[in-house]
Here is the input.
Amino acid sequence: MRAVEIGQFGGPEVLRLVTRPAPVPAAGELLVRVSASGVNRPDVVQRKGHYPAPPGASDLPGLEVAGTVVGGDPAELAAAGFKLGDRVCALVAGGGYAELCVAPIAQALPAPAALSDVEAAALPETFFTVWQNVFEIARLQPGETLLVQGGSSGIGVTAILLAKALGSQVIVTAGSDDKCAACVALGADHAINYRTQDFVEEAKRLTGGRGVNVVLDMVAGDYVGRELQCLADDGRLAIIAVQGGTKSAIDAGLVLRKRLQITGSTLRARTVAYKAQLAQALRDKVWPLIEAGRVKPVIHKVFDAAQAAEAHALMESSTHVGKIVLTW
Here is the structure.
């Protein structure tokens, strides 16, 4: 099979198209002939040498794929409602940048009939992540307000779509007026240009001084202390990445007085059983919204797999709105 591997740690140019032996599905796994592979920020971090694959996972980058089931035990597939030839999308711990990819059956979902394979490949990583952190850990409720840092990213766009579809208000931050406008066009109630506005003051102003109920944070660093300031009583801060650094100074008294909660989570190294629970929740609560046309992934640009370096360069430029996808 063709695959994109990390030749050595470094810039986008270290990605190279190679030929590798096809993987063989083990018990509990299916084999996907990949049509499209999602590109995500963790792929960039792995390419730089800071996010190794978990033990037992492929060293190839790529955390989400869509395509056709071409292998796996027929009885195991049938027990999960799949068969050879089905269109699926799947969350994987590595190996997604390839023409063939194995995935735990429990982490596969039917590719929504209304979506292309490119669109389906844009679902697993961001939808699993947003569902886990915003709805299960931070417990965002209908009528509450969510603040999303980086609203134009793949994660940010997914958070906008899901939160709005499930009845919450959404405020986002973005780094330009054009990105802010794009987020509002996608359904965000308000967008804050963090380069020209203070998101703490704006979040308070937009909520009548109450503050937001949940913050989804991909920045961390000195953002954490500021985010606590714009949370409402009983507010929840969910940290999912540390693009702004790992050190934060916070007002612990504020945490006590307002009964705030700070959570952190990564998904890649979690167990298959845990990810299976997320997959089932998505299938039950989100897939019907996709099939009904109420939620649709936003694709910024599609690259041929041989152009993976260009896809990574675009990801690092942070000029995209929505998802970047490779096709095979």
In short: The CA atoms of residues 138 and 236 lie 6 Å apart. The longest helix spans residues 124-137.
